[in-house]
Amino acid sequence: MRKSWLDSTRGALLLLGASACVVAALWVLVFTTFPDNITAAVLHYSVGVGVDFIGEGGQVIMLPIAGTVLLVLNALFAYILRNVNVAASWILLSSSLIVQFIFLAAYL
C-alpha cells in the first residue's frame, strides 16, 4: 500500500526546508542591506507621505528573529503532534512557510 502525501516524512521535510530557505534569505537580506554601525534606519515609507517611521538600525533585525522563532516553534509543535494529529502537524508546517513569505514581503 502506498503512503499518502500526509503520511510522508519527505513532504514535511520539504515544507520545513522551504521555510528555512526563506528565513535564511531574510537574514541575508538584512545583513547585506543594513550595516552594523547604522544608527537610524527608515522602517516605513509611503508614497504619499514619504518617510513615516525612523527607528534604530537594530530594529531591522526583528523580522528575521521573529521568523526564526516561529519556524522553530512551528517545527517543534508539528513534530510533537505528528503522531497525535497529522492534519494539525501539516497545518503548522504549511503556515510556517506562509508566515516566512509574509515576513520576507514585509521586509521588501
Explain what you see.
This protein has one domain (10-107). Helix 1 (9-33) packs antiparallel against helix 2 (62-81), helix 1 (9-33) packs parallel to helix 3 and helix 2 packs antiparallel against helix 3. The chain has a two-stranded antiparallel ribbon with strand order 1-2. Helices cover 62% and strands 13% of the residues. The chain has helices spanning 9-33, 62-81, 86-107; strands at 40-46, 50-56. The longest helix has 25 residues, at 9-33. The model has no long low-confidence stretch (mean pLDDT 80). A hairpin with a 3-residue loop joins strand 1 and strand 2 (50-56). It contains three helices and two strands; from the N terminus they run H-E-E-H-H. The chain is of the alpha+beta class and 108 residues long.
Spans where pLDDT lies below 50 across 5 or more residues: none
Count of structural domains: 1
Number of strands: 2
Q: N-to-C terminal Cα separation, in Å?
A: 46 Å
Sheet with the most strands? 2 strands, antiparallel
Could you say which structural class the secondary elements and strand pairing correspond to? alpha+beta
Let me know the average pLDDT: 80
| Secondary-structure element pattern, one letter each | HEEHH
Q: Give the helix level as a range of percent.
A: 55-70%
Shape: elongated
The largest sheet has its strands arranged as: 1-2
Proportion in β-strands: 5-15%
The gyration radius over C-alpha positions equals 17 Å
Our count of helices gives: 3
